[in-house]
């Protein structure tokens, strides 16, 4: 049956609809039911294979078990590889960094029951987008930790970073002392010189390598954690009367 267009119908924007889903808990329910449906399908398949007649040939049973194993393995590999095609920052906003940092033990890491393999690429995409919004501050903290570890492993990169910061502090001091604001041409020339010197320092002392390694490690950890972390009800801050 086709419905006639209704001039009084209203369209809800996607951000508002996702906010309603998040506040009402339907995202967690959808994630739980998707995992439960996948587990039920897997259990029914295993029970049907175990209920085969005893007169069946052993090579057929072995081939069916092997084929099911490789099919399941291929499906999981496709699901994991789909994480690489997801843009994890498509739904991230500046407001996600303004709230409180979720607790590391109970909120971010959770328990062993807080993780499960995504049953499909759609579930992995939903988990990644939602978990990155919830744990944005945790992932930013992890990037800072990984970057600090990379600088510790590469002392020259740490020297280059400190030298570039010292260079711009020197420029700020000279600008305040000799009033470069009154001479825009000289100020622009010195800014260009400082940018070139900073680029040479960062490139020569491998600061970009430390930054790239920290980005690669933190991005991989973020995708794996967000894709395998179950959606749990987020606690709403209590409002005072």
TrEMBL record:
Predominant location category: membrane
Alphabetized UniProt keyword annotations: Membrane, Transmembrane, Transmembrane helix, Transport
Transmembrane annotation, as ranges: 139-168, 189-205
GO cellular component, one term: membrane
Claim: NAD is one of the keywords in the record: no
Coiled-coil intervals, chain numbering: none
Top-level division of the source organism's lineage: Eukaryota
Lipid bilayer topology: Multi-pass membrane protein
One protein family per Pfam: PRA1
Keyword Transport in annotation: yes
Any single biological process term in GO: vesicle-mediated transport
Functional description taken from the UniProt entry: May be involved in both secretory and endocytic intracellular trafficking in the endosomal/prevacuolar compartments.
Similarity field: Belongs to the PRA1 family.
Protein name per the record: PRA1 family protein
Species annotation: Microthlaspi erraticum
């Amino acid at each position: 049956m086709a419905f006639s267009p209704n001039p009084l119908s209203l369209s809800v924007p996607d951000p508002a609809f996702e906010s309603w889903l998040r506040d009402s808990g339907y995202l967690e329910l959808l994630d739980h039911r998707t995992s439960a449906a996948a587990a039920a399908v897997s259990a029914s398949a295993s029970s049907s294979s175990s209920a085969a007649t005893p007169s069946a040939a052993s090579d057929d049973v072995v081939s069916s078990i092997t084929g099911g194993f490789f099919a399941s393995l291929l499906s999981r590999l496709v699901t994991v590889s789909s994480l690489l095609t997801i843009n994890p920052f498509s739904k991230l906003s500046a407001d996600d960094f303004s709230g409180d940092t979720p607790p590391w033990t109970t909120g971010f890491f959770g328990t062993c029951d807080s993780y499960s393999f995504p049953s499909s690429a759609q579930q992995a995409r939903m988990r990644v987008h939602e978990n990155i919004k919830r744990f944005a501050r945790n992932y930013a903290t992890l990037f800072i930790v990984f970057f600090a570890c990379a600088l510790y492993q590469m002392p020259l990169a740490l020297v280059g970073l400190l030298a570039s910061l010292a260079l711009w502090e020197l420029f700020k001091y000279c600008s305040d002392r000799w009033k470069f604001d009154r001479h825009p041409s000289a100020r622009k020339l010195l800014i260009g010189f400082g940018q070139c010197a900073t680029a040479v320092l960062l490139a020569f002392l491998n600061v970009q390598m430390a930054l790239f390694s920290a980005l690669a490690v933190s991005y991989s950890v973020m995708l794996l954690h967000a894709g395998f972390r179950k959606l749990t009800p987020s606690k709403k801050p209590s409002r005072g009367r």
